[in-house]
């Protein structure tokens, strides 16, 4: 009887250790998504890279972000509220477009972006790129990893598009890609065809709610980190992801008479979750 109890306790203990290790692995995996560097925060994400194209229809609306854009869907759906991330392989400032040094006009900038996308596909997915060239309309997707240096939730017409400056894009080792050829037909509503109707319209929003009347936005998720900005109560911020009990958020301040800013100012940093509450529109 004692031997049976001893075996049972050993089995129970082993199961307990296994459960703890699994939970620890999951936590470590999530914490690995944020890399803290002297140059800022890097998001190191795993997910699915997608791109759609249609060479047959010149009238596909540019507002349909899935058309011709490099999209990344993180496996962790908590990041940017499960929205698609539109990847850019160069830095950008969409809130202050007039400060681009080489931005003679929109058409030239768009042409540069298309060239970068083509070069990226050709370099990172050469075999698939050759196949895509022979297809007029289709979809390409592959499990991938991406390193993101900057996230910009950009809201227009009540819909938020999440842009990101990516410094690295790689196929997951051994992962198989998928190319789907789509039958070309004239759509009554091209925008609806290329849009993901299940995608949330915006990111999660939180409101500063501190007993001190304000909270500190910090560069890193520690109380010893540099203060990026002080944020008053009722300030509404957008949630990107989290590191433990610290939320990595985005906020933007537009020029007006009260702040005397000459251009839009963007804020990214960490706020402890105890200083925030969910915002209701």
Question: Could you give a short description of this structure?
Answer:
With 281 residues, the protein is an alpha+beta fold. It is built from 4 helices and 14 strands. The chain has helices at residues 2-31, 106-124, 126-133, 190-193; strands spanning 34-37, 40-54, 71-74, 85-88, 137-156, 159-171, 178-181, 205-208, 214-218, 227-232, 236-243, 246-253, 265-272, 276-278.
Topology of this structure?
Elements: H1 2-31, E1 34-37, E2 40-54, E3 71-74, E4 85-88, H2 106-124, H3 126-133, E5 137-156, E6 159-171, E7 178-181, H4 190-193, E8 205-208, E9 214-218, E10 227-232, E11 236-243, E12 246-253, E13 265-272, E14 276-278
Parallel strand pairs: 4-6
Antiparallel strand pairs: 1-2, 2-3, 2-5, 3-4, 5-6, 5-7, 8-11, 8-14, 9-10, 11-12, 12-13
Helix pairs in contact: 2-3
How far apart are the first and last residues' alpha carbons, in Å?
Answer: 63 Å
Mean pLDDT comes to 84
Mind describing the biggest β-sheet?
Answer: 5 strands, mixed, barrel
The radius of gyration is 23 Å
Structural class: alpha+beta
Walk across the major sheet and give the strand order: 2-3-4-6-5
The helix count comes to 4
Can you count the beta strands? 14
Residues in helices, as a percent range: 10-25%
């Amino acid at each position: 009887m004692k031997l049976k109890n001893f075996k049972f306790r050993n089995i129970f203990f082993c199961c307990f250790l296994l459960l703890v290790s699994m939970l620890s692995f999951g936590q470590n995996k999530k914490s690995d998504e944020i890399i803290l560097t002297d140059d800022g925060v890097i998001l190191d994400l795993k997910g699915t890279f997608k791109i759609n194209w249609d060479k047959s229809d010149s009238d596909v609306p540019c507002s349909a972000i899935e058309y011709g854009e490099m999209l990344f869907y993180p496996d962790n759906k908590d990041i940017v509220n499960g929205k698609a991330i539109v990847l850019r392989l160069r830095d950008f400032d969409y809130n202050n477009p007039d400060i681009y040094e080489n931005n003679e006009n929109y058409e030239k900038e768009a042409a540069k972006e298309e060239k970068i996308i083509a070069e990226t596909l050709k370099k990172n997915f050469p075999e698939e790129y050759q196949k895509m060239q022979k297809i007029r309309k289709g979809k390409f997707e592959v499990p991938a990893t991406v390193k993101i240096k900057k996230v910009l939730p950009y809201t227009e017409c009540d819909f938020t598009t999440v842009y990101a400056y990516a410094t690295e894009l790689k196929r997951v080792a051994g992962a198989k890609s998928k190319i789907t050829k789509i039958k070309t037909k004239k759509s009554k509503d091209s925008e609806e065809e290329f849009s993901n109707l299940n995608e949330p319209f915006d990111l999660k929003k939180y409101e500063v709610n501190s007993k001190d009347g304000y909270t500190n936005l910090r560069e890193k998720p520690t109380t010893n980190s540099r203060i990026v900005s002080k944020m008053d109560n009722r300030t509404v911020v957008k949630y990107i992801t989290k590191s433990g009990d610290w939320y990595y958020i985005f906020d933007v301040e537009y020029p007006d008479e009260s702040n005397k800013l000459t251009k839009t100012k963007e804020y990214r940093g960490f706020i402890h979750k105890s200083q925030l509450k969910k915002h209701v529109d």
